[in-house]
Design a protein that fits this description.
There is one protein chain. Helix 1 (13-22) packs across helix 11, helix 3 (57-64) packs across helix 4 (76-88) and helix 11 crosses helix 13. The protein is 35% helix and 28% strand. It folds into 2 domains: 5-119, NAD(P)-binding Rossmann-like Domain (Rossmann fold), CATH 3.40.50; 127-309, Dihydrodipicolinate Reductase, domain 2 (2-Layer Sandwich), CATH 3.30.360. The strands form 4 sheets. Strands 3-2-1-4-5-6-17 form a 7-stranded parallel beta sheet, sandwiched between helices. A 7-stranded mixed beta sheet has the order 10-11-12-7-15-16-18, with helices on one face. The longest helix has 18 residues, at 318-335. By secondary structure, it is an alpha/beta fold.
């Protein structure tokens, strides 16, 4: 039987983990404009490659032609237009670009083209949404909290942080106002606000702060209290606030010796070498999803804890594993015909059915990504 064909748009750390995982079962091709990561993927894993600039509708159409499913793994600033152009090409897509635009603006187009689009298919947003979607469909949920962070195992001064995503996308988390639901109302606070210290087994105490991670949940889920907070090593928030308030994260151009530059571009260029994980450097992902609700007249609290580390055998980063394998689990659901809802589908839609929810958990478990559940 001929293998289904999948194209992965983007050869970054997470995109590559996705391509390698899917290649065990499907005919996979990776597309990127950069030659070096493509050649490495081809040389070390035998993945088919194409070098294409994905910045235009025509090039995206060329890249996705003849494939059964598209995986979007481009940087956030390219995400919305890439997804739109894939829809225009009439292809189903599972996307992890986490673009800032409202995905539901593409709902009408997706339905006209009769394609299934799953967005935010990562760890958070992503797996947190899947978990909430399942409980929202089966019990009376009253509260949802997601605490999540990806960090280096070795704390290295001054930042004690490393990034597997584009530095510009990371910086966006530090400036975009955080939205959450409290007592049924929408609250908007500045990013990095409401700092709390939270203890985790195997990690110790981490610092949490408000981030804008609820995204689609603000429209799709109606419960009294919902919040997402990002986790970092203690002390991180203070220096990030200093950088932000000084203007280093600003997108407004400033004049420097007669040249106009955006401070955020300079900051990203300076931080990228500092934030880049060295070969063999280990990272971990920690997440805690807490759901309060009522089932059969009784109140319960369900807590899902994730602690995942860099895989030494495969050299795969934890953030690539936890994000990428959630994406590939959902991709398998589409390719196996187990999820085919036309239109824009955030992960909470995927998790609504028990069989899909369990499929994703089992898929991750098989790859060593384990969510331990406690019922209180």
């Amino acid at each position: 039987m001929e293998k289904r064909a999948v194209v992965v748009l983007g050869a970054g750390l997470v995109g590559n983990a996705i391509a390698i995982d899917l290649s065990k079962k499907f005919d996979v091709t990776t597309v990127d404009v950069r030659e070096e990561p493509l050649q490495k993927l081809s040389r070390e894993h035998g993945i088919k490659i194409k070098r294409i600039d994905l910045s235009t509708k025509e090039k995206v159409a060329e890249a996705v032609d003849d494939f059964d499913l598209v995986i979007g793994a481009v940087p956030g600033f390219m995400g919305y237009n890439t997804v739109k152009n894939v829809i225009l090409a009439g292809k189903d897509i599972v996307d992890i670009s986490f673009f800032p635009e409202d995905p539901f603006k593409l709902e009408k187009l997706a339905k006209e083209k009769k394609v299934s689009v799953v967005i935010d298919a990562g760890v958070a947003p992503g797996m947190g949404n899947v978990i909430l979607g399942y409980y929202y469909a089966s019990v009376e949920v009253t509260r949802y909290e997601c605490l999540v962070g990806g960090l280096p195992v070795i704390r290295e001064w001054p930042f004690e942080y490393k990034a597997v995503f584009s530095p510009v996308d990371v910086i966006e988390e530090y400036v975009r106002p955080a939205r959450y639901i409290e007592n049924g109302g929408l609250i908007v606070r500045e990013a990095l606000s409401d700092t709390e210290l939270v203890y985790f087994d195997k990690v110790g105490t981490l610092e949490s702060w408000n981030s804008d991670g609820l995204r689609t949940l603000l429209k799709t889920i109606k419960i009294p209290d919902m919040i997402e907070k990002t986790l970092r090593y203690p002390g991180t928030v203070e220096y990030l606030r200093v950088l932000r308030e000084t203007g280093f994260f600003s997108c407004e151009e400033v004049d420097v010796r007669g040249k106009k530059i955006r401070p955020v571009d300079l900051t990203a260029s300076l931080l990228f070498p500092k934030w880049k994980l060295k070969p063999g450097e280990e990272d971990f992902t920690v997440m805690r999803v807490t759901i309060d609700g009522k089932k059969e007249g009784k109140y319960f609290t369900w807590v899902y804890d994730l602690y995942d580390r860099y895989n030494k055998e495969t050299g795969t980063l934890s953030m690539a594993r936890t994000t990428g394998y959630t994406c590939t689990a959902i991709a398998n659901l589409l390719l196996e015909g187990k999820f085919n809802k036309i239109g824009i589908n955030p992960p909470e839609y995927v998790g609504e059915k028990k069989e899909n929810f369990e499929y994703i958990l089992n898929y991750l478990e098989e790859r060593g990504v384990r969510y331990n559940v406690r019922i209180l």
